[in-house]
Specification:
With 358 residues, the chain is an alpha/beta fold. It is built from twelve helices and twelve strands. It has a seven-stranded parallel sheet, with helices on both faces. A three-stranded mixed sheet has the order 7-9-11. Helix 1 links the parallel strand 1 and strand 2. It is globular and about 65 Å long. The N and C termini lie far apart (55 Å). Bound molecules: nicotinamide-adenine-dinucleotide and thymidine-5'-diphosphate.
């Protein structure tokens, strides 16, 4: 089986590529990635010479390129992760999200349909990796997102992912394309670009810079270790039902401020700094526009139907993650060089605001 994995040089994609290349030596894994700011082939150095792995540089927003690739490579299956993935960037450049997440997904869907439909869809799968943010925002309380929760996206990022999910289902219902979807909560772990909260905080603590907490730091996210997301994708790809969606989450809700305090303490411990040193860098800044209050996932379906569960506790995952960033400072330095500085301090720099009442 030849599997086209899109976005394989990114954070989650690189863990999925590594899992499939090493676990399934009989599969051919073709990694298609445009290598945007978020794509980094360093993430895959350890497996790049594997005989069942190949990388192709290309842009899913270019239909001629996508068509030529499908005609030449004839993939049996697609696992689609390529996307613009950061909410803050989507607020300042929403069109990039429409182009890649919506149009790019439609180009892939239609290329797969045109390649597979003539001889029948048997043995083929188009798997779209999506986010829980399509469901909108929860209040504080016991509610969880289930697979039946109505879509209610609020940010340009989540609207673009919701739209792409709808197109995936439309290709299933209209053309019979054999699709699967999963909607996952916030991931963390090695190789995460330091614009997202956890790697950003570790990077800034490591370099003695303030760690920005949006608003009052009360927003809640449900964190899952990236390698556990990769094993969930493996389970859905191989055993999930066609046409179905599976929610994936860590049963691991944290308020941002509590999470950052935990991270500070972990960094102090692993660097041998006196306890409390890192917490002094916590800085409250202007809130994100339209900041979703709470995400929390009900993973009962994937756990009961596919037997998947996370392999690490949050404490273990976070410890491994902090250790990885401290041991891989060269990776962080390379991805936080020139372009990142301009991006972070220019367009997205946030002024400090008074500390909220605690
Ligand atoms: P990422 O930003 O780290 O990586 C995205 C990858 O896609 C990069 O390698 C980039 O070069 C590539 N890419 C972007 N535009 C492209 C284009 N036009 N053509 C080809 N390649 C392109 O993202 P991630 O965090 O690894 O997320 C991967 C997928 O998982 C996304 O679809 C995202 O919506 C979804 N997801 C992410 C999370 C999370 O917490 N990060 C949670 C749930 C779902
Ligand atoms: P992020 O990692 O950007 O993921 P998402 O917005 O997709 O959930 O942000 C996680 C949470 O952390 C979110 O509530 C916004 C908040 N946040 C901060 O408080 N400070 C930061 O510097 C960043 C990047 C995020």
């Amino acid at each position: 089986m030849k599997i086209l994995i899109t976005g394989g040089a990114g954070f989650i994609g690189s863990h999925v590529v590594r899992l499939f290349v090493t676990k399934y030596p009989d599969y051919q894994i073709l990694n298609l990635d445009a290598l945007t700011y978020a794509g980094n082939l360093e993430n895959l150095r350890d497996i790049e010479a594997a005989p069942n792995y190949r990388f192709v540089k290309g842009d899913i927003t270019d239909p001629a390129f996508v068509d030529a690739l499908f005609a030449e490579e004839k993939p049996d299956a697609v696992i689609h992760l390529a996307a613009e993935s950061h909410v803050d960037r989507s607020i300042t450049d929403p069109l990039a999200f429409v182009r890649t997440n919506v149009l790019g997904t439609v180009h892939l869907l239609d290329a797969a349909r045109r390649l597979w439909q003539p001889a029948g869809y048997d043995g083929h799968t188009f798997y779209h990796v999506s986010t829980d943010e399509v469901y909108g925002s929860l209040d504080f309380g016991p509610d969880l997102f289930t697979e039946a929760t109505p879509y209610d996206p609020r940010s340009p990022y989540s609207a673009s992912k919701a739209s792409s999910d709808h197109f995936v289902r439309a290709w299933h219902h209209t053309y019979g394309l054999p699709v699967k979807l999963s909607n996952c909560s916030n991931n963390y772990g090695p190789n995460h670009f330091p614009e997202k909260l956890i790697p950003l905080a570790i990077h800034r603590l490591r370099t003695g810079q303030p760690v920005p907490v949006y608003g009052r730091g009360e927003n809640v996210r449900d964190w899952l270790f990236v390698k556990d997301h990769a094993t969930a994708i493996d389970a859905v790809f191989h055993r999930g039902r066609l046409g179905d969606t599976y929610n994936i989450g860590g049963v691991n809700e944290w308020q941002n401020l509590k999470l950052i305090e935990l991270l500070c303490d972990e960094v102090d411990e692993q660097t041998g700094q006196p306890a409390g040193t890192s917490r002094q860098l916590i800085t409250f800044v202007q809130d994100r526009a339209g900041h979703d209050l709470r995400y929390a996932i009900d993973s009962a379906k994937i756990m009961s139907e596919l037997g998947w569960k996370p392999s690490v506790t949050f404490e273990q995952g976070l410890r491994q993650t902090v250790a990885w960033y401290l041991e891989n400072q060269a990776w962080l330095d390379s991805v936080t060089s020139g372009a990142y500085q301009t991006y972070y301090q220019g367009q997205y720099g946030r002024g400090a605001s008074p500390a909220p009442a605690r």
